[in-house]
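2-amino-3-carboxymuconate-6-semialdehyde decarboxylase
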Amino acid sequence: MTGGPVTVIDVHSHVFPRFSRAEGRTLAGAGEPWLRVGGDGTGMMMSGDEEYRPVEQGLWDPERRLADMDAAGVGVQAVSSTPLMFGYAAEPARAADWCDLVNERVLAFCAGAPDRLLPLCQVPLQDPELACAVAARAAADGHRGVHIGNHVGDRNLDDPGITGFLAHCAEIGLPVLVHPWDMLGADRMRGHMLPWLSGMPAETQLSILGLMLSGAFERIPESLRLCFCHGGGSFAFLLGRADNAWHNRDIVRADSPRPPSEYTGRFFVDSAVFDPRALRLLIDVMGVERVMLGTDYPFPLGEKEPGAAIRACPGLDDAGRALLLGGNAEAFFAVPPAGDPAGIAPILAEGRTT
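Tokens:
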């Protein structure tokens, strides 16, 4: 990736297919997500009869998305559902039916530009055994990864059932993208989008430390390709605090044979921290081969100029910049040799560069 133009790969973008009100009722009592579309390129994400968030056309229209990608110099996007669509509160069988519908629509969204849009599936994570079956089916249908929330109710990623699901993803070679959602402390974070500004970073740090300190990483195959969105939240800034606690308190290290800093090679993070100085710290903590471009397209809190923080990051040379802009994502989404779907190499061969 250092000898020529770089194919820019965005690992963190969202889609909300045009589900009708009737289709949203598949998740009766569990969010009932659907999309109300106006005639002016705007829409509204709906939760039952409640308006959830205004959105724009790139969220559901692949042609508009591709035009936006062209304008921004993005060659490839990994496309994942919007967390409102997870359906984790639903009865498992109904949630599985919903996930199959979502996954079918995401595949259809990407079908017109398979060299540029990589579909990620979602699963009924509230039932890990069923989630394994849905993930395997989606992978066979052409999904390139799985998108999950960072918890299911009070069950974090270190829950035995969820770690079993992660192990299954490792076994079938399916990368996992973890997104914070349903943020903690909502009763104290009223207004000003504080759940997104404060709750999301805390949720992601909680998930990462939970996997480390519970010993879950010791039980999950090292072959698992795992990525946390939003730069890993507050994890990088507070890693020193976690290491200090591990060394000085036996209750912190009771289930973890190694300090937290020794597990950073077990996962990736995206670059969505928006400040080149913060990105520099993130690279120093994670290593240049563990950070990938992520924009959170097309939401307002995403990076408006994809890769701007990467290009402005102090001390990052051309080789490192190429890794963050595309090389690391190329490795993350590469299909194992025994896999059935085509690898990402044909995409890169298309020459979509910036």
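The CA atoms of residues 73 and 354 lie 5 Å apart.
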